[in-house]
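re: the backbone from monday

yeah here it is again, tokenized this time
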């Protein structure tokens, strides 16, 4: 081909490409204009205009994280800017909202317009791979359908499976708190939650492990803690994760994976055994659906992260609050006493209204996941938050993030009353959480926490056992609750308390 012809062809190809780009952008602009006009969308306030890439905000929130005031800062931002406002994080637009109607749109009505977003996928991928927590759309729906059967009623209501673990926890706490010694309950709660999660995933807890297994288990727990914290840090850093020293993080992730692969291999090795079908643990039941080692490993890691830390955080926060309210402890004891010392069934536990109210209320004032977000995968609309009065719909362009503070929403005075910041279990006497989009400790909609019923039952059972065994729980440190934000959020100072045993209680009665 002659040089001049080549030049013409190149020019034509280049011009067509430019025209194609212009046309695509124009079409998109027109579609967006139509969507905005149809819904009469208006923009919410953008308070920090002088911070176009969100770098100042990032620096300030990192400082707040280190000074343990991140949640307070978030609540103050909503007080100052309103219930819906926008900011930027690098190239992404972020819409912050605490409007229940908007949360409903994101988590339910327009569920498939959103996904968990690149930031979460990028942060947790080394540890959780392509597990349920990390995926969206049809892949997520398929994966959830595979995992859900492992959460059948028979498995999650198997109170007998927790008995030995909880008894062993109580013995350790009794020992540590004897002679009126002050004890920090938090490490005991986290160990208990870990044992319960282990037992759910593998059918056995650390308590009945052999010594060599215990060492492996301890190494795994240490590595998991480090790797989980590392993922959280990666999330905060977003696209700047390369600033985080990775070598140690990946070493710990490898330890976690090595341990879980061994668990998977142990299960796969006995899958042809006659009584295998009777096993109720998560891993065994998941092998009925898939034998893929990596899938099994990633889902087991995901479940461990989802179950252990969250339940430990909830127990710590709940008992932190219970230690402050003597009369609440008394009422719990009355309710547990009326139901007797027989072994409770899941049905019995669900009927303990005051116990359930206390747990719900702890999850309201101190939610374990105090904030969450979703990324819009296509142009969409939030029902409210736009305009000066905040009543107009808001246009959400594809690629932007809708971020919601669960803590700020669950403490809104206009929704929960003037005592919204107070722990008052009685407020649940006439409220049903399932219908209330202003209360989402387990989220809501199709992606609601798979373990919510299990967590509520386990924690109710533990409260029953604690109030039966101890006449009083006197909190020793009177400081206010201080946040410790990691994958779950809990009390930085634990629960330092003096426990007064009930002398009339006889074990095994
Ligand atoms: C107090 C305890 C717990 C709290 C507060 C809690 C909270 C949550 C929240 C807020 C989510 C939604 C995350 C998101 O989509 O962005 C979630 C998801 C999930 N949780 Fe929980 N959780 C708890 C305990 C558990 C337990 C005990 C298990 C399992 C044994 C569990 C299994 C899961 C799973 C598998 C998901 C992913 C669901 C999906 O993406 O489809 N959770 N949890």
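seq for it, each position gets an aa:
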């Amino acid at each position: 081909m002659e040089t001049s012809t080549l030049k013409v062809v190149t020019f034509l190809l280049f011009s067509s490409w430019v025209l194609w780009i212009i046309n695509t952008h124009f079409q998109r602009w027109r579609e967006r204009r139509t969507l905005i006009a149809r819904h009469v969308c208006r923009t919410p306030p953008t308070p920090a205009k002088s911070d176009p890439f969100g770098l100042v905000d990032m620096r300030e929130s990192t400082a707040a994280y280190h000074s343990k005031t991140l949640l307070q800062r978030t609540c103050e931002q909503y007080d100052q800017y309103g219930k819906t406002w926008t900011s930027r994080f690098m190239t992404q637009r972020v819409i912050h909202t605490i409007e229940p109607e908007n949360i409903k749109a994101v988590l339910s009505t327009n569920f498939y317009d959103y996904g968990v977003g690149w930031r979460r996928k990028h942060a947790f991928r080394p540890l959780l791979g392509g597990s349920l927590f990390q995926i969206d759309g049809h892949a997520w729906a398929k994966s959830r359908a595979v995992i859900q059967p492992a959460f059948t009623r028979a498995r999650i209501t198997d109170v007998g499976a927790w008995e030995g673990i909880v008894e062993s926890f109580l013995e350790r706490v009794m020992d540590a708190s004897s002679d009126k010694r002050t004890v920090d309950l938090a490490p005991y709660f986290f160990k208990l939650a870990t044992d319960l999660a282990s037992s759910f995933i593998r059918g056995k807890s650390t308590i009945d492990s052999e010594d060599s297994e215990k060492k492996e288990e301890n190494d795994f727990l240490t590595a998991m803690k480090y790797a989980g914290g590392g993922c959280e840090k990666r999330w905060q850093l977003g696209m700047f994760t390369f600033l985080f020293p990775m070598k140690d993080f990946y070493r710990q992730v490898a330890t976690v994976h090595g341990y879980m692969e061994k668990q998977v291999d142990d299960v796969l090795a006995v899958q042809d055994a006659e009584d295998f079908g009777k096993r109720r643990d998560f891993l065994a039941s998941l092998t009925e659906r898939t034998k893929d080692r990596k899938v099994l490993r990633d889902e087991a890691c995901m479940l461990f992260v989802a179950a252990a830390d969250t339940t430990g955080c909830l127990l710590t926060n709940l008992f932190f609050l219970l230690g402050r309210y003597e009369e609440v402890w008394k009422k719990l004891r009355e309710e547990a006493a009326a139901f007797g010392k027989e072994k409770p069934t899941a049905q019995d536990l669900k009927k303990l209204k005051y116990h359930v109210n206390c747990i719900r209320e702890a999850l309201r004032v101190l939610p374990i996941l105090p904030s969450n977000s979703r990324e819009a995968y296509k142009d969409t609309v939030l029902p409210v938050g736009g305009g000066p009065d905040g009543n107009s719909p808001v246009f959400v362009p594809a690629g932007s993030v809708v971020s919601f503070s669960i803590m700020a929403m669950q403490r809104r005075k206009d929704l929960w009353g003037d005592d919204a910041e107070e722990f008052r279990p009685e407020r649940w006497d006439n409220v049903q959480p399932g219908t209330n989009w202003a209360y989402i400790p387990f989220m809501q909609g199709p992606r609601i926490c798979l373990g919510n019923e299990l967590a509520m039952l386990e924690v109710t059972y533990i409260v029953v056992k604690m109030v039966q065994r101890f006449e009083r729980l006197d909190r020793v440190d009177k400081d206010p609750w201080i946040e410790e934000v990691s994958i779950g959020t809990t009390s930085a100072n634990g629960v330092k308390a003096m426990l007064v045993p009930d002398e009339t209680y006889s074990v095994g009665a």
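The first helix runs from residue 3 to 39. The chain has a mean pLDDT of 91.
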